[in-house]
Amino acid sequence: MKKLAFAALLLLLCLPSSAGRIVTDTVKSKVLESDVPLNVYLPDGFDNSGRSYPVIYLLHGFSDDYRAWRDKGQMQTVVDELIGTGECVPVVIVMPNAGGPDTRNTWNGYFNMPGWSYEDFFFGELMPKVEEKYRAIGDKEHRAVMGLSMGGGGSTVYCQRHPDKFSSCYAMSAWLDNEKREVRPGENPDKSFFTSQAVNVHSALRFVEQADDATKEKLRTVKWFFDCGDDDFLFDQSIRMHQLMRSARIHDELRVRNGVHNWEYWHTALRMALPFASRNFGK
Question: How distant is the alpha carbon of residue 196 from its chain centre?
């Protein structure tokens, strides 16, 4: 009995001393002509601290929605643990909606396309509103973006096109291009077709290939991390991105781990992504 009691005490001592909470909110968008739902992680003590916090935008993948990181990725468990151990600073994490499972009839994507100007919404409406409401510090040095698959590609392109907005980018199993039709939604011009087309138009790979010296210099102000499983169908894209970044003399981190395109991989990736973002805040 004494051994069991001692083991229970050790377990309690190892648990995070603080726990945040997730709130569900909406942003009324004139650009998208809709109310856009989102989940927001708030660290322990947020309501009474009165302080401002760094902010991370955590983006979901194709066919998922704003609930995916909370429900499938179990992100709160990871964040509470990392904040509790000091590996991540207390941070606000915004998980906006950019899709849904009915991909042929629901808009999916982080880029502007016919009928869905999501990038305009993200930078013109979402960021200003949530950062004011949830007391984000609101500058490049204290803002990061990360995501999986479609969200990994979105994170990368957002930092390429808006390097003055983000200190770091962590792209998991990133969908960086669709030139070889890695995702094949079909030939009919439904909404999934436009998503696939937009990924090709906003190719993160081609962006680096075509970048001039001034653009490369701006990209060097962002900390980059690409993380992809060795059996992921998008594996070659992360490898190609790393090669292009090296050729352009833009420092990035690349991790290849055992895994495929699934939540087990992304849940584990989050344990590296959050400390990476945290280490690069304030620089």
Answer: 19
* Residue among 73, 75, 69 at smallest CA distance from 97: 69
Q: Print burial letters for 142-169: b (CB count within 10 Å at least 16), e (below 16).
A: bbbbbbbbbbbbbbbbbbbebbebbbbb
In single-letter form, the type of residue at position 124 comes to G
Query: pLDDT (tens digit, 9 = 90+) per residue, 204-221?
Result: 999 999 999 999 999 999
Q: What is the pLDDT of residues 228-251, one digit of tens each?
A: 999 999 999 999 999 999 999 999
Q: Are 94 and 38 in contact (CB under 8 A)?
A: yes
Rounded-to-integer distance, Cα 22 and Cα 93, Å: 9
- Two tokens, residue 248: 């352009």
What's at 88, amino acid-wise? C
Burial class (CB in 10 A: 0-12, 13-18, 19+), 13: exposed
Straight-line distance from the first to the last Cα atom of the chain, in angstroms, rounded to the nearest whole number: 51
**Which amino acid, 163?**
P
Place of tokens 């998922």: 64
Under a CB-based contact definition with an 8 Å cutoff, are residues 95 and 60 in contact? yes
Q: Express each pLDDT in 56-88 by its tens digit.
A: 999 999 999 999 999 999 999 999 999 999 999
Question: Which residues are paired to 55 by β-bridges?
Answer: 92, 143
How far is residue 31 from each of residues 62, 92, 115, 123, 151, measured CA to CA in Å? 21, 24, 10, 11, 20
